[in-house]
Every structure is written in structure tokens, then in C-alpha cells.
Write a structure and sequence with these properties.
The complex is a heterodimer. By secondary structure, chain A is mainly α. Helices cover 67% and strands 4% of the residues of chain A. In chain A, a hairpin with a 2-residue loop joins strand 1 and strand 2. In chain B, helix 2 runs parallel beside helix 3. In chain B, helix 3 links the parallel strand 1 and strand 2. Chain B is built from five helices and four strands. Classes of the chains: A mainly alpha, B alpha+beta. Chains A and B meet through strand 2, helix 1, helix 2, helix 3 and helix 4 of A and helix 1 of B.
């Protein structure tokens, strides 16, 4: 029994093994981009919106509202990043119900890649917002002693992101596969339904956590009315 | 459980590509569409607000105009009433004037018709009177009347002598015509009068039963008559003159 689709090599390209994770990722990418392009191809203000366009607007609007609720402001770059995270993970997790389709999010490589992008994106957004000095200063706050802990925290939350998503999706797929062997008529359906719910929640959690990390990195300290920095609560 | 770092790298690349593709085909079109629609809605709401404001201004203006019209309606009605009364008075005055003119014209026509009728009546009466008088005189005239007329003519001969002499030309004989023969003393009276008024003329008496009673004196081409007909002709002329005068004068004359 394969625990990860990385081991399922579909073809080799220039000596590089193209496994099911990558191919299925392409499929999901093609699905997302294709549907988006199909719905938005005739998008003009004078054309009444179709129900599909309305659905997309609701989805994008919901993501924008969530990001604005967390970060307190509307940032298109955060939308592109966190929204793509959510849509990709959401679609990949829903694809677990397709028989024979190994969802990419059941691969630790995929979740690790997504976690790495979050790990890289957070300092990029932080430096873009605060400047490199302001961002690095957050590692020695509230005191220099906290530097190693902050670094460990920064790395560990990336690892936790990757492991959480991978563990949930992979475990759901594995449990469904085991139950399919033991009781093939009823329990797998229940587990698949539970897996769908878990997958949607994990997609939401992953995107929300990424947004929270980016928000905390880009948050600027409020200034007192006299222009001085307020005294921090150090407890 | 293991991590395939090649797959990790490929997935990072895939994810970055997916970000770009979704930005290109999903986020930007949707956000631009939402922004455009919000802008259009905002523009339409602004336009609607402007139209509403314009409508409210128009409503206020019309209400003010209606109030002004209501306020001035009484004045307008009074003015219209005054105008109507003035027009009515003018029309009545004009009608009265025309009626008076027509009445005056009809009165004039009536007066003229009355005068014509009266004149015609007088003429007819005079004609009848003359005819009756003429017949009566013709029937009743006798020698005495003719002799009286001849004596009267002898007394009037001096008044027409000049005209007779001028009309006589070269003739030197006068002829006195009567219906009946005059007595000798009357002839002598007439001859004496002729001799006195027209000396140099010889007088000869003659009769013509067809003549009316009286005396006609002929000197060449000139003639003077003192007969019943000449009197009646004079009466006829006097009645014609009287009939041609206006009705009032006729009335006064009557």
C-alpha cells in the first residue's frame, strides 16, 4: 500500500521522475485555471453576471472579506497568495472522492512545499511592509533572549503547517483505504464524507494560518498621539 | 513517510505558477468586474440622486407656480370679468349703434316711401281733379264764360305783348280764336286792347268748335292762350310743384 503518491511515477522527463503528485497537481491547476478562464472570459460591466460568475465573485469576495477581517486591511498580494493556497488545497481535498485519484495534498512533499512557500512568503511580506530592519527586529522582541525561540517558532509553525495538512489528508485517505478492505459497502462512504469535511476545514485552516502569519509579520506598531511608540505589555 | 525534494521543488514551482495563473484568470477579472460594477452602481446612484434632486427642484418649482397661480386666479378672474363686461358693453354699444342706424335708415326709407306715396296720391288726385274739372268746365262752359275769359285776356294782353311781338316775326296779322263767336262789344274790347298793346297789327276773329272755352291769340309763329285748358295746365303745374316738395312742406302746405 502506497502512503504517498510520490512513489507512483507516471513518466520520466529528462531523467526526472514525474510522479502522480506532480501530474495530479497539474490536473487540479488545469481545472482551476480552466474553470476560471471559462467563467471570466466574457466578463464586462455591461453584461449581466451569470450564476457561475456570481459564484466565483462570492468565493473571491469571501476570501477577500476573511483576509480583511484578519489583517484589518485589504491587500491584493495576500489575496493572491492565501486565496490560491485555499483554492488549491480545497480542490485537492475535494478530489479525494474521485476514485483512483491520488490527491496531491496527501503527499508530504506537497504540504512541505506549501509550508515552505508560507515560510518564505512571511518574511517577504514582512520585509515589504516593515523593511528588512523592522522585520528582523521582530526576532529580538521583546528581548534579545527571545531570538532563538522566535527562530524555532518560525520554523516549527512551518513544519506544523505541513504535518497538519499532510497528516489529516493522508490519514483520511489511508483510513478510507483500510475500511474499503475491511467493510467495503458502508464505512468507506462515511469516511469519504468525513474526509471531505476534514479537507475543507484543513484548507480553511491552512489558508487562515498563512494569512495570520503574514498579517503578524506585516502588522505595523500603532503610534501614540505624540508620535512615540506605546509601551508594550511585556508580561 | 518521506519527502521527495524534487517533488517539493516542482510543487513550489507549480504553486507559484498557479498563483500567477489565478491572478491572471480569476482574481483580477473578478476584482476588476466587481470594481467596475460598483463604480457603475455608484455612477447610477449618483445619476439617480441628481435626477431625484432635479425632480424635487422641478416639483418645488411647480408647486410654487401652482401657489402663485392660485393666488392670482382671483385677480385673473376679475380681470377676465372686467374684460368680458367691457367687451359686452362694446358689443352692445355697437349693436345699438347699428340698430339705430338701421332704424334711421328704415325711417328714412319709410319717410321717403310715405312722401312718394303722398306725392303719387296727390298727383293722382290732382290728375283726377283736373280731369274732372276739365270735363266739368267743358260741359258747363257757355258763351258768358268765354266772353269773360276774352275780356280777361284783353286786360292781360299788355303783359305778353313783348313776347308775342318777338315771336311774330314779319307777320302783322293777329288771329283771335274762340270756340264760339264773341259778341261785337267783346270783340271791340279785345281789338282796343290789341291796338293798345301791339299797335300795327290787324286783328281777325275766328271760331273753332274743337277748342276749349277761352281765347287763343296767334301772331305768326307766336301764340298766347287764355282758355280753360291753359288754366287747368297752370293748376296742373302748380300741383306738380307742390307734390315735388318734401312731405313736411307738403304737410305744412296742406
Amino acid at each position: 500500500m502506497e502512503l504517498t503518491p510520490d512513489e507512483n511515477v507516471i513518466f520520466t522527463l529528462g531523467g526526472i521522475a514525474i510522479n502522480a503528485t506532480i501530474v495530479n497537481t497539474w490536473i487540479i491547476m488545469a481545472l482551476l485555471v480552466g474553470v476560471s478562464a471559462l467563467i471570466t472570459r466574457n466578463l464586462r460591466p455591461d453584461v449581466p453576471p451569470s450564476r457561475w460568475r456570481t459564484a466565483l465573485e462570492v468565493a473571491v469576495g469571501g476570501i477577500v472579506d476573511q483576509i480583511a477581517e484578519i489583517t484589518g486591511k485589504s491587500d491584493a498580494r495576500v489575496l493572491y497568495f492565501a486565496g490560491t493556497l485555499f483554492l488549491f488545497i480545497f480542490t485537492a481535498n475535494l478530489a479525494t472522492v474521485v476514485p483512483g485519484f491520488d490527491t496531491p495534498t496527501a503527499s508530504l512533499s506537497t504540504t512541505a512545499a506549501l509550508a515552505l512557500t508560507v515560510l518564505v512568503a512571511v518574511p517577504i511580506f514582512g520585509i515589504g511592509s516593515r523593511g528588512i530592519g523592522g522585520y528582523l527586529r521582530t526576532y529580538i522582541e521583546p528581548s534579545l533572549i527571545m531570538l532563538p525561540f522566535n527562530i524555532i517558532g518560525e520554523v516549527s509553525r512551518g513544519i506544523s503547517l505541513a504535518i497538519r495538512l499532510y497528516g489529516n489528508i493522508m490519514s483520511g485517505a489511508v483510513i478510507a483505504a483500510i475500511l474499503l478492505g475491511v467493510a467495503p459497502f458502508f464505512f468507506p462512504v462515511l469516511m469519504d464524507m468525513l474526509g471531505l469535511l476534514t479537507g475543507v476545514i484543513q484548507a480553511y485552516i491552512f489558508a487562515i494560518l498563512a494569512t495570520v502569519y503574514i498579517s503578524s509579520a506585516t502588522a505595523t506598531e500603532p503610534k501614540a498621539p505624540d508620535g512615540t511608540k506605546p509601551e508594550k505589555d511585556r508580561t | 513517510m518521506s519527502v521527495d525534494w524534487i517533488t517539493v521543488g516542482a510543487q513550489i514551482v507549480n504553486f507559484l505558477v498557479l498563483i500567477w495563473l489565478l491572478k491572471r484568470f480569476l482574481y483580477r477579472p473578478i476584482l476588476d468586474g466587481i470594481d467596475a460594477r460598483e463604480a457603475e452602481i455608484s455612477a447610477r446612484m449618483g445619476e439617480a440622486a441628481a435626477i431625484r434632486e432635479s425632480a424635487e427642484e422641478t416639483e418645488a418649482r411647480y408647486k410654487a407656480e401652482i401657489a402663485a397661480l392660485r393666488a392670482s386666479r382671483g385677480e385673473m378672474l376679475d380681470a377676465a370679468r372686467r374684460d368680458a363686461e367691457a367687451e359686452r358693453d362694446a358689443l352692445l354699444s355697437d349693436a345699438r349703434t347699428r340698430l339705430a342706424e338701421e332704424q334711421a335708415e328704415r325711417e328714412s326709407h319709410r319717410t321717403e316711401e310715405t312722401r312718394r306715396f303722398a306725392a303719387d296720391l296727390h298727383r293722382r288726385g290732382a290728375g283726377a281733379l283736373l280731369a274732372l274739372t276739365r270735363k266739368a268746365l267743358d260741359d258747363l262752359a257757355d258763351e258768358t264764360l268765354e266772353q269773360r275769359i276774352a275780356l280777361h285776356a284783353a286786360s292781360r294782353l299788355r303783359g305778353v305783348a313783348e313776347a308775342l311781338r318777338d315771336g311774330a316775326g314779319e307777320a302783322r296779322e293777329a288771329v283771335a280764336l274762340t270756340r264760339d263767336a264773341l259778341p261785337a262789344e267783346v270783340q271791340a274790347e279785345v281789338r282796343a286792347a290789341l291796338k293798345d298793346a301791339l299797335p300795327g297789327f290787324a286783328l281777325r276773329f275766328d271760331t273753332d268748335p274743337a277748342l276749349p272755352p277761352g281765347l287763343s291769340l296767334r301772331l305768326g309763329g307766336a301764340q298766347a292762350g287764355w282758355t280753360v285748358d291753359s288754366y287747368l295746365d297752370g293748376l296742373d303745374a302748380a300741383l306738380d310743384d307742390l307734390a315735388r316738395q318734401p312731405a313736411r312742406q307738403v304737410t305744412h302746405a296742406a
